[in-house]
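Troubleshooting log. The previous run stalled partway through. Resubmitting the same two chains, unchanged.
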Amino acid sequence: GNSVTQMEGPVTLSEEAFLTINCTYTATGYPSLFWYVQYPGEGLQLLLKATKADDKGSNKGFEATYRKETTSFHLEKGSVQVSDSAVYFCALSDQNGGFKTIFGAGTRLFVKA
Amino acid sequence: GAGVSQTPSNKVTEKGKYVELRCDPISGHTALYWYRQSLGQGPEFLIYFQGTGAADDSGLPNDRFFAVRPEGSVSTLKIQRTERGDSAVYLCASSFDGGANTGELFFGEGSRLTVL
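Second attempt completed without errors. Output:
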């Protein structure tokens, strides 16, 4: 079945540091890939998405590129801010999985001033 | 309201009791999803509705769990004979159209269930 594996947290960075959160997936079809973010005290919200190989999703300075050859969708940001502190979830959805979206375990990010 | 609304936000019950959790999706969204999130884990899929029908209920853990969406809008997740292991945050999400056009899920803030 489909699955998502992402790096364990917590990740602690200083402000303006470079961020990478690794995500790899297993899927029998051609999935769409997502990053969702959960800020403290708020519900999950979509951060970015990519629907086919080599697509790059981007939003709020975050980027992730859909790599079919390595089945990866790593999240990156060049310079993090304290306000980026949150839990980040990698997710996928595909036809062979009945179109339900499945999520990784989440990676908590702490950014220190 | 403009977003997905879930009630109650917190529910404390005793082992063996019956619980209902309600989700009011964004108006016009045909797809509705229920997830369960335990501490430190990602959302775990339970069930997905397309309109009034359950398109995929493969994530319901056992027959104590049941969900309905009788008019294609509000949904209720029902848990019978609750067990301590059912304690979690139950998340509801909606999207404009599931299926091949699945895109962004809009989540509510969740219902935190504690079974004593």
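Takeaways: Chain A has a mean pLDDT of 93. Chain A has no helices and twelve strands.
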